[in-house]
Amino acid sequence: MANLHKDVVAPYMHVVKSFMDDDSPNPYKLRTTLLFFRGRTVRKAEGKVRAKLEKILKGYSDVHFEAGYATGEGINASTQGMRTSRFCLHPAGDTPSSNRLFDAIVSHCVPVIVSDHIELPFESELDYSKFSVFFSVKEALVPGYMVEELRKIPEERWVEMWGRLKEIAHHYEYEYPPKKDDAVNMVWKEVRSKVPAERLAVNRNRRLKVHDWW
């Protein structure tokens, strides 16, 4: 579990290629799949939610839920699926986060995050509620609830989130050499923001003669 007082949450490198020419005047209509997921469905711990979601989401004509692996063919299938879907499902795996979230971001597919214990990169700079949808595990496992909630999101709201994804996707790119506000630059900004509080804690600890009351 991350300690946000001192830890920095860095994004995984995305696996799919970034969607560079996503400039359709009507992206909502072009993306005909409501919700997309492709990945391993047999996981440990909190990742067991995936198997339950697979059963719940079967039978919806506008939901694509498929078991798959990160082979070359699988990555191509995920790329195509994410680019033609409005929402991309991100349930927890063996860890709360995975590269699937960042694949969705660079594909401009609105992430649907299902987790009770997730920390997200650059949250001091970015408001994830502007470009993601969140469900608790309990909510997601109610049959029909998540799909109906996603269907209720108006086209105008989805287009706003899609547009915001296009604006912030560069923050999740690991460039070489690093570029302004890319992932490397953003991580160092987060590190710098932690230094004063850590220095204060170290200096206080050196002079205290009793247990720290903070």
From TrEMBL:
Residues 5-147 form the Exostosin GT47 domain. It is a single-pass type II membrane protein. The lineage of its organism: Eukaryota, Viridiplantae, Streptophyta, Embryophyta, Tracheophyta. GO terms for cellular component: Golgi membrane. GO terms for molecular function: glycosyltransferase activity. It comes from Lactuca saligna. The keyword Transcription regulation does not apply. It comes from the Eukaryota. Keywords: Glycosyltransferase, Golgi apparatus, Signal-anchor, Transferase, Transmembrane. This is Exostosin GT47 domain-containing protein. The keyword Transferase applies.
